User: Fold these one by one.
Assistant:
Number 1:
Amino acid sequence: MTIQDVKQIKLADYLQSLGYTPVKQQGRNLWYKSPLREETDASFKVNTELEKWYDFGIGKGGNIIALAAELYHSEDVAYLLKRIEERTAYIRPASFSFGRQHSDNQPYQGLR
């Protein structure tokens, strides 16, 4: 998995794969209890449009790789990519093809 592949994974999907679900949603922002520390009130925000996170309790934020760096206490990008891939092996960005799709147009063929 490359850096570009990892950046296509939605933060909400990644957090879900780690067992975190949002406490509330406000517009394009999802609020979580921080995966980086213990807390009683949600102060970890994910902007679903920008795919960025920010933890108000520690004053840090960034993209999915920055989150993995905090979670796994490492700056080794190859290690972080591997850890993200392990957690999100089933999550893949959709690929779209706008070419003509073949259709049989006879869905009931052979029915009596």
Number 2:
Amino acid sequence: MSAAYATFGLVPAIRAGGVLSDGGYRIHRDFVDFLVDGHPLLHRLSDLDAVSPLASDVPPAIFTEQVRGLLLEADAPLPGDRHVIYGCPECEDLACGAVTAVIRRDGDDVVWRDFAWQTTPEADLERNGYHGIGPFRFRGAEYRAALHALLATAESGAPRRRVLLIGARVAVLARLAAALRTIGVGADITRDAQDVSPDELRGYGAVAFGRAVGERERAAVREAFTRAGAEVAYVDGLAPIIPLLVAQIEHALDPGPAERRRLTRLTAAHGEAGIEVTSSCRVQVTAYRLDRLYRTHTHQVFDGVLEPGLHRIPLDARAVKGEAFVVARTTGSVLVEPMAR
């Protein structure tokens, strides 16, 4: 077997969690995706809700074992030198389905081939093979350097990031914190950050402000984080709608470079949503609005696979009447936009 060389790299990614319109939840997962020729490998799988085995919330020993497996320093977990490339984001059960591939050395090179969808220990390439993906031949030095660097970062014990919620409406913040914790995102509530220690501030990845927080208070919070040397994303809460606020925070927590995200643009105006995607993927569009009594109304606008490019999704006038917002979501990213009046 021969294959042209492909470049290998790693990039931080998320499986965006969220509060669904039916009241259910999607768990937030931070993981590392594989870059093949500069593009996330997961993007080649248009409608797959999955994460790589290199997730930040697995115990350090298991994370190290997964990396050493990819380095071929440990036995493959499945027969025939098969390794799990992407698995279920909710559990580790193979029965839920996983993308697997044969990983072997070829001289100093490392080759990934025979990609397949697998629900049992044995893969059926004829029925469930991904015939349009691979084989990929990686230069051994580049491949090992990327994984060893990841291993060194993991062993440094970097803390997981949390969200600091600041606002006047304690009841809304408490519900938001509960929703974030349910999907696996840590959240704390405070009125200001003046008395929070620098070490603790550096543990946050985002700060979310309620609409009632004034500019002077916001500036004081930013100053406290600056003094602590903490780089965080700041979120201005659009409305007291929990699923909407969760989506805003998920977007802020996305560590991946913008140019490597599937969902790159969202507009909401003139009765339609404009959505741009970089690869074929399933997109869900939800509209939220507040009526005159500040009750929340939710409308599922679109749920389907979009091809790369810019798309226009019509919005029902009743779904975006008054103060309204649109959320577009793919497996790995989410965007929020207020409806232009």
Number 3:
Amino acid sequence: MAKISILCLSFNHQRFIAEHIKSVLNQSFKDFELIIVDDCSTDDNVAEINKFKDPRIKLIRHEFNKGINAALNTAFENANGEYLMFLAGDDCLEPNALKVMIKELDNSGDIVLYTGLMRIDINGKKIESFNVNVKDRFEILNTIFMKQNCLFSPGMSMRKDIFAKYLYPLDNSMCLHQDTQMHVKLLLNVEPKFLDKNLILYRFDDNVGNISRSFIGLSRDRMETEILMDTFLNINDINLLKKVFSKEIDKTKLEPKIEYLEFFLGNMAILASEWYRKVWGYHTIMRSYNTKAKAEALKKEYDFEFKDYLKLINLTTEDNEVIKFKNKYKKYKKLSIALGGLSVVILVFLIIGVLLEVKNA
């Protein structure tokens, strides 16, 4: 049994996987296993991995491409370490990373450990460092719910039993928000701990771009947000709700109650900064109100009636996209009116032209 299992997802990392493996093998801390799951790469990734003969390296190949979370599930199922760390096949470790992280994990209880990142380019050149700015557990959860992810996943570490209890099995269909969902599930149950030391070398290719920066990534972000937000419906701690949404509770005077969690979280989401989070909130309130029994319960507990439900739409139409749509509609309306007048003039000239042709004939 190893002290720590490094879970490595590798897909078409032929160019980078050797550097990744060397950074692990050169660690000052030696009691580890490196579990590499090749997610059916189409390049020579596997051939590069097989060049290393160290018994601490376990290579597992997927028979078809299954995705990020499926690969992590496979790695977890084959892990024997007391601790787990996530590290993609194109990222690397600083030489003392495991030693520092193991010390922190040994001296802590139920935590998830995050460390600083050093961004590197495709050639391994160090560019800039990244550290988490928001470190309070409740503020992090609020930020993810209301705005966006604010945590990093490369190098994220925890005890194996914590992964088993709160994460396994990971949702195979999640892609862009797969790590965000992990953060939520963990922080709903355990405390985060942060190291400001940049122990992880995080590779970023400016020529290709990160998936989250692309148009397709933006579309996937919106498609997956609903499932991500659903993760918060697993909250069963009233005190946690009060701490996560303290500012929103002060603003709305809406008291959280676990038995009316959908209604409460829906109202919180309507205050979010992005329209598609507001939509999730509106739909969640719809579900909380969709039967006679639910409607009567909300009237009793919150004095909430159908007229109040109808007013909620006013809180969901302030998004920039809606404003742009309204402005575009007004623009096209003015244009259509102008063209309508112009079309009359054109029609008159056409009629005159036809009459002249008939006369000349």
